[in-house]
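User: Run a structure prediction on this.
Assistant: Running it now.
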Amino acid sequence: MDLALPPKVTDRAFARLEELNAPLLRVAVEGGGCSGFQYDFRLEEAPETDDLVLERGNTRVVIDPASLPFLTGAVIDFTEELIGARFTVENPNATSSCGCGTSFSI
């Protein structure tokens, strides 16, 4: 994996965080899910010292060092559909994913 390509956050994702008045969204990758790995999205107050911080204005998205290799070159977005609204990850490292969009394999 090429660690030279950090994840990107769309304007739509930053705008949704601003609407929520959420200062920080943590995006992590954990073992589990139906495909081996799953994304975890959490609203938090402050980053950890070793997090990668992506920011626009006062709004930040952070990724921990253990999750970063799995998210290299990924795009973090926010989507609104008839079935609901959610943060999503378009991950070029994933070789397959499940229908729910939160589980993937590499």
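The beta strands are 8-9, 24-31, 37-44, 52-56, 59-63, 75-81, 84-90, 96-97, 103-105.
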